[in-house]
Design a protein that fits this description.
Blueprint lengths: L1 E6 L6 H4 L3 E4 L7 E5 L2 E7 L4 H14 L4 E10 L9 E9 L4 E2 L5 E2 L1 H4 L3 E3 L2 E3 L2 E3 L10 E6 L7 H10 L4 E3 L2 H10 L4 E10 L10 H15 L6
Parallel strand pairs: 1-4, 1-5, 5-14, 6-12, 12-13
Antiparallel strand pairs: 2-3, 3-4, 5-13, 6-11, 6-14, 7-8, 9-10
Helix pairs in contact: 2-5
Length: about 230
């Protein structure tokens, strides 16, 4: 299979990059390209955030079509019962802080404001769904994409009241929207590095999340996943 692997940082996919064979740099946009088991794997590192993701992914998808584009990375979970390191598949992404704020402090989303984004002539507001799920036996979840990670209980509750979700990340919705715009089949997988709570980095476990994500990808890429 011809696969595009997308991540915000090299750190999140470094274990996979280290296992690539016949690695070359074939494009000014891609980090590298090589063989991974029976797959041709192109690696794109976008940088943190929605703008970087859209800017780096768009020129790639404008020139190339892949059997599947896969976004991977780490994320925070709003659900305390979800263990750190757990790998999940994201089936819907919400732009959870896109819109306006009322004078009472309420979030006014794009639908409330009356502003749609048209992607392939179809109107979208804050939410983008993946029309195709994988058959991998991992939890399917909804995620909120934000520019500013939640750091207070007030922010957490305000976002969840408007966009109920399990995860929070900084790139997912832009990846979903761009893939949909270019009719590119895609999946999104993330490993939980922390719980979304008043900011407390002492409780995070990024190395565990990266290792669990790497183990999942290695196992999954042994077989066709489309």
């Amino acid at each position: 299979m011809n696969i595009l692997l997308v991540s915000a940082t090299e750190l999140e996919i470094k274990p996979i990059i280290c296992q690539l064979n016949n690695t070359v740099t074939s494009s000014p946009f891609l980090l590298c390209k090589g063989r991974y088991f029976t797959h041709e794997l192109s690696v794109l590192v976008t940088g943190i955030g929605m703008v970087n993701t859209a800017l780096k992914l768009s020129p790639i998808l404008a020139q190339h079509k892949y059997d599947i584009a896969i976004q991977v990375g780490i994320a925070g979970s709003y659900m305390r019962e979800r263990e750190l390191g757990c790998v999940v598949e994201i089936i819907q992404e919400n732009y959870a802080d896109l819109g306006a704020e009322s004078k009472e402090g309420e979030l006014l989303d794009l639908k409330t404001l009356g502003f749609a984004s048209f992607v392939n002539k179809k109107p979208y507001f804050n939410s983008f769904d993946n029309p195709k799920y994988s058959e991998l036996g991992i939890p399917k979840v909804i995620s909120n994409t934000v520019n500013l990670c939640s750091g207070t209980e007030t922010t957490i509750q305000k976002r969840l009241e408007h966009f109920p979700a399990e995860l929070e990340n900084m790139e997912g919705a832009a990846f979903f929207q761009t893939c949909i715009m270019y009719n590119q089949p895609f999946y999104a997988f993330r490993a939980i590095s922390n719980h979304v709570e008043p900011r407390n980095t002492s409780q995070w476990n990024i190395p565990l999340a990266i290792q669990k994500l790497s183990n999942f990808l290695q196992e999954s890429l042994h077989n066709p996943i489309v």
